[in-house]
């Protein structure tokens, strides 16, 4: 399979190159940028709680900035691309704000559990991809860590493979991680809320 000029296959999932200093530095920049994007997203959610700005407008704004960033060449000014990344993260946070407020009104512990759960899963598949050795097969990984983490593992592997092939676009790679993190967080948040509601109905019946 070829993605953005980088060829990867089943073998590339199992057979990593040794991390070169350039790849290590790239991954540090990716995760630092991701951390900053998550902070921007948190501010977006906070802004919604204060000014009630989240909704269709912020969702459209996120979609627009996402498309703008994806079609902005990597050779353009990084400050511009970073601005688009952080703006899209802020708008995404504002867009999720209404759901977060609903969850807080219902049970704030659900929000904490969802964030911690997302962070743990994200760290697990990131660490697994970075520490993988030639003796670890894809089949074993899928069996032990489950499909969800396996998919995240593939995303990390693809970014590492792209870096090995010279694609050092840390802004785009950070954005890929951010959208995956946000999607995972929303799904875990919804699942936890439904679980709490179901448990509450059972308790009321007793």
What does this structure look like?
Helix content is 82%, strand content 2%. It starts with a strand and ends with a helix. The protein is built from six helices and two strands, in the order E-E-H-H-H-H-H-H. The chain has helices spanning 10-14, 21-51, 56-70, 78-131, 138-164, 170-205; strands spanning 2-3, 6-7. The model is unreliable at 1-10, 12-17 and 141-145 (pLDDT under 50).
What is the total tally of β strands?
2
**H/E element sequence:** EEHHHHHH
Q: Which regions have little confidence, pLDDT < 50, spanning 5+ residues?
A: 1-10, 12-17, 141-145
Biggest sheet record = 2 strands, antiparallel
Structural class: mainly alpha
Radius of gyration: 19 Å
Helix content: over 70%
Subcellular location: Membrane
Protein name: Bax inhibitor 1-related
Organism: Arabidopsis thaliana x Arabidopsis arenosa
Family: Belongs to the BI1 family.
């Amino acid at each position: 399979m070829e993605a953005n000029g980088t060829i990867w296959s089943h073998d590339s999932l199992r057979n990593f190159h040794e991390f070169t200093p350039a790849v290590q530095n790239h991954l540090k920049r990716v995760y630092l940028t991701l951390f900053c994007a998550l902070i921007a997203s948190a501010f977006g959610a906070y802004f919604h709680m204060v000014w009630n700005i989240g909704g269709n407008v912020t969702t459209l704004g996120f979609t627009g900035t996402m498309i703008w960033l994806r079609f902005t060449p990597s050779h353009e000014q990084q400050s511009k691309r970073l601005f688009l990344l952080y703006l899209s993260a802020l708008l995404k946070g504002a867009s999720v704000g209404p759901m977060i407020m609903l969850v807080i009104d219902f049970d704030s512990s659900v929000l904490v559990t969802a964030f911690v759960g997302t962070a743990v899963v994200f760290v697990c598949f990131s660490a697994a991809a970075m520490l993988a050795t030639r003796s670890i097969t894809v089949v074993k990984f899928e069996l032990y860590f489950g499909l969800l983490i396996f998919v995240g593992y593939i995303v990390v592997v693809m970014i590492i493979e792209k870096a090995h092939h010279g694609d050092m676009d840390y802004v785009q790679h950070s954005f890929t991680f951010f959208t995956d993190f946000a999607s995972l967080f929303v799904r875990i948040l919804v699942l936890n809320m439904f679980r709490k509601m179901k448990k509450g109905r059972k308790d009321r019946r007793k």
